[in-house]
Amino acid sequence: MIDLLSELLRDRMTKSLERAFRFIQLAHRNEDLESVHYAVVRGDKRARSTALEFLDVLTMGDDALRTLLRLVVDDLPPKERARRAREILAPGADALGHDEALTRLIRDEDPLLAALSVAHAAEAGLLELVRLARQEAKRRPELLRLGPPELLPARLTLSHA
């Protein structure tokens, strides 16, 4: 289950980056940002470096945008990326623990992400999160209808609430 959840989160990050490049393209219609995006996500080290330099020049007037783009496109380990994101977006905030992160995912507006998070909590035997999942299932019945039954274990059904 954790593999499915991780893959879904990676997919959301990929789509968010694509949207960011589309928005930048709107502001810079004469630039070939599709090639820059390709270099960032699939290029070798040299192509990535050139793409990052281009993005730095393109966003020269907007330090916040440049910093956030660098954070997203730099080749960083996930923990370092998360640490830097916290420094930028929530200075002084502590890292989320596993249970707190999972709680936020269970409450996420994306029903598939929430359902996979519910299933992970049940698999891991996290009783508090299973209780939260039951509450969310009452509020959002679509969580019980998503995917094959093994994604939402029987102990999450409303009759056990």
Describe this structure in words.
The protein is an all-alpha fold. The chain has 2 domains: 2-89, no CATH class; 98-160, no CATH class. The protein has 9 helices and no strands. The protein is elongated and about 50 Å long. Residues 147-152 and 155-161 have low confidence and may be disordered.
Low-pLDDT parts are 147-152, 155-161
- How much strand? under 5%
Q: Count of DSSP E strands? A: 0
Alpha-carbon distance between the two ends: 22 Å
Please work out how many helical segments DSSP would assign: 9
The biggest sheet amounts to: none
Order of helices and strands: HHHHHHHHH
Topology, pairings included?
Elements: H1 2-27, H2 33-42, H3 45-58, H4 63-73, H5 78-89, H6 98-106, H7 111-124, H8 127-139, H9 142-145
Q: What labels describe this entry?
A:
about 70% helix, mainly alpha, elongated
Short description:
With 161 residues, the protein is an all-alpha fold. It folds into 2 domains: 2-89, no CATH class; 98-160, no CATH class. Helices cover 70% and strands 0% of the residues.
